[in-house]
Structure prediction request, 304 residues.
Amino acid sequence: MPENSVSADLQTGSDKMVEWTDFERDTIKDIFSRIEYDVVGPAALARCLVVYPWTQRYFSGFGNLYNAAAIKGNPMVSKHGTTIMHGLDRAVKNLDDIENTYTELSVLHSEKLHVDPDNFKLLADCLTIVVAAQLGKEFTGEVQAAFQKFLAVVVSSLGRQYH
Amino acid sequence: MLSNKEKMLIVEIWESLTPVAEEIGADALLRMFACFPGSKTYFSHLDISRGSPHLLSHGKKIVLALAEGSKDISQLIVTLTPLQIMHAYQLRIDPTNFKLLSHCMLVALSCLMRDDFTAVAHAAMDKYLSAFAAVLAEKYR
Prediction:
């Protein structure tokens, strides 16, 4: 199965802390303070379900996902998109310990939801593109790099408890 | 698999971007260099700083090739033959990098087109860029 996503893989052992530059910290916090969680979250999840339709396999209980318009208007998709953003918010507030912050979430996605961790990268890429549309020119290459580094740590932490 | 609607959408988008080919090409490249520093290794012989003539001309070439290919996607293998040969035997860029640039191109499009870069447009463009990259890599081995 070819790789579909490009968020960098991080190999963080539990004894290695992720190091953030001041620019990265400020940028990540700034982005999250400016975006509306209940706009960006739903948009990103809907986009993922449209661009990578196989991800719909995890949402069979969500009702009508028949086409892009249905997905965009689906209230369960919107609700879950917002939930995801609040989950990311926890990582933003715990930048120096995302791994431990996400232990339970990782177990949940592995043991209960049985989500292939590759899907986290697909959603991360869609979120990057939605945030890019929100911020326009201000989403420079450097800002994108910081945001993608954050998402890579999130993705890695979410995959950490799989076995 | 691209529907006819998607193919039309892709042509439309590239047509609208041709006048700013330099700008968007350079933007995509700069994003790739910032986010995936390994990609810079292929450009050690060029000045790839923001605004440099090398960067602008290279960005323009890439966007014009993407625009040209979009005019008849079923003929990509024919249209891209010279570029296939160049990439396989001369440039030998690891094809993983095509994915990196494709992603950065999507981000560049999103920054520029904002709400107009809908999920449907994104899906179509992602599929086109994947197809383009696959054809580009075909003569590698």
User: Anything to note?
Assistant: Chain B is about 70% helix and 0% strand. The mean pLDDT of chain B is 96. Chain B touches chain A at residues 27, 30-31, 33-36, 99-100, 102-104, 106-107, 110-115, 117-120, 122-123, 126 (CB under 8 Å). Residues 53-70 of chain B form the longest helix (18 residues).
